[in-house]
Amino acid sequence: MSLLITKDCVCCDACREECPDNAIYENSPIYVIDPDLCSECVNDFSEPACIVACPYECIIPDPDNVESIEELRLKNKRREH
């Protein structure tokens, strides 16, 4: 599944800087993760870079965008090409 930034976001930019998918963008008043781009850092890191970087712990799994590990790997592979 893709990830979701909660309303607790303060737009500190920490997550956006770390996202290898360039899936995080500013959408006032909080940042948003594009579910079509987010691969949850599968094949890149052991856990999503944005979750690790977020000092406010406001990034969670998005229940509306459930994907299998294989689907996430395909997204990651498309980004590499």
Characterization of this structure:
This protein is α+β, with helices and mostly antiparallel strands and 81 residues long. The chain has one domain (3-79): Alpha-Beta Plaits (2-Layer Sandwich), CATH 3.30.70.20. It is 27% helix and 17% strand. It contains three helices and four strands, in the order βαββαβα. The chain has helices at residues 14-18, 49-53, 69-80, and strands at residues 3-5, 24-27, 30-33, 59-61. The strands form two sheets. Strands 1-4 form a two-stranded antiparallel ribbon. The chain has a two-stranded antiparallel sheet with strand order 2-3. Strand 2 (24-27) and strand 3 (30-33) form a beta hairpin. The longest helix has 12 residues, at 69-80. The chain is globular and about 30 Å long. The relative contact order is 0.29. The mean pLDDT is 91. Residues 1-29 form the 4Fe-4S ferredoxin-type domain. GO terms for molecular function: iron-sulfur cluster binding; metal ion binding. InterPro entries: 4Fe4S_Fe-S-bd, 4Fe4S_Fe_S_CS, YfhL-like.
**Global structural class:** alpha+beta
Strand order of the largest sheet: 1-4
Using only C-alpha atoms, the radius of gyration works out to 12 Å
How many E-type strands? 4
Number of DSSP helices?
Answer: 3
The gross shape turns out to be globular
The number of distinct structural domains comes to 1
Mean pLDDT: 91
Q: What is the CATH topology classification name? A: Alpha-Beta Plaits
Q: Which stretches are low in confidence, meaning pLDDT under 50 for 5 or more residues running?
A: none
- The run of helices and strands is EHEEHEH
What helical percentage do the residues reach?
Answer: 25-40%
CATH architecture: 2-Layer Sandwich
Biggest β-sheet strands, sense, barrel: 2 strands, antiparallel
In terms of DSSP E residues, the strand content is 15-25%
Termini separation (Å)? 21 Å
Q: Class, according to the CATH hierarchy? A: Alpha Beta
